[in-house]
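Entry for zinc ion complex. Fields follow.
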Amino acid sequence: MVSKGKTSVTFHSGVLTIGGTVVEIAYEDAHIFFDFGTEFRPELNLPNDDLQTLVDNRLVPQLKNIYDPRLSYTYEGDEEKTFAHTAVFLSHAHLDHSRMVNYLDPAIPMYTMAETAAILRSLNRNGDFLIPSPFEKQNFVREMIGLKAHDVVQVGKISIEIFPVDHDAYGAAALIIQTPDTQITYTGDLRLHGYDAEDTLNFCVAARHTDCLIMEGVSISFPEREKDDATPEIASEQDLIAKMKEIVLANPERQLTFNGYPANVKRFLEIVRNIPRQVVLEANMAALLKEVFQVDVPYYYANPQQAPIPLLDATLALPYPTLLADTNKYFWQVVDHFENLQTGGLYIHSDAQPLGDFDPHYQIFLDLLAAHSIEFVRLACSGHAVPNDLNKIVALIEPKLLIPIHSYHPELLENPFGERILPQRGEKILF
Ligand SMILES: [Zn+2]
């Protein structure tokens, strides 16, 4: 039986945690989901990434008729309805929002910004970013329908408009979802201190007085966290580039290397534009820059066995040993084999993996650099609105109802303009 004229929101996962947000909005015979990543819990040391393993360990939720039916998985939830219209939306390319896209039923359409689709295909070129589908080749990425800013998608009686926002993954987007009785807004991950802050502000204007604002609260997750001495105060992406430039200028005769998070394509672009040495990128990153911004950058293959990437200009390729021997000409992206770097060199870790001490690999990585007497400098700039900016975003939108998610402490985000709900994992709210 089809229920009439009621919108529901179900928080399948990603509520009192960071990552793995899967929220469902349903109206009559249609429903949509956002996003489709997994929770990141490396300390669990799971034996595999099989769907049933992920569900059993609560890294992904129970979902009925959403996962690829060829995967072995038994639904154990309590959804009884079946739907005529289903679609999935991705807000951005970060793994906690995208990692299980290949587990989505191939018959269900997936929508995201065209940039995000391009970034995911590029990051998964070697098949080690997304969880692979057991039915496809290793580097397969399921079909994604790439949207432009403000495109509107209709799913049954639900319409969804996509808005670009500023985040440290290029192509990040928010959604404004309209059902016949309710407007629901999903922020995705966003901030006000990057190159595209204007996009976030424009989105806030469009979402003003929304009925329900589902909002990320990553930065209020760690009220007890102390300032990390190794991390200089960095207030914006521009500030980060300025600090990086200072370090490069202060070290004229020294091997200088760096790494960052590939989805932050804009940061790489600004490094290429602003650093006063010849910037050299690892080939896969160079290909991503070429694809997204049509910019050619000198590059090298970290893996000499990798087949040449046709997109890249072969005349810009540099031999890896040239970079390893250099002390004054290049500022190059190093992605592995840090033990090959020169003793006495300096490496800038700019939100690269391992991301931080919550990952057991982080300390191992620091120890390796220390053992080789390579100076480690962390230059980080968060992809998430700082607490004051979260309040500012709420104040710009003035939602009737606020639902903070994607945070360890959602209760710290208040709504002076209306109601607030703190849902539990699996909770369904009826409008
Ligand atoms: Zn993110």
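NOTE: The domain at 7-222+384-430 is CATH 3.60.15.10 (Metallo-beta-lactamase; Chain A).
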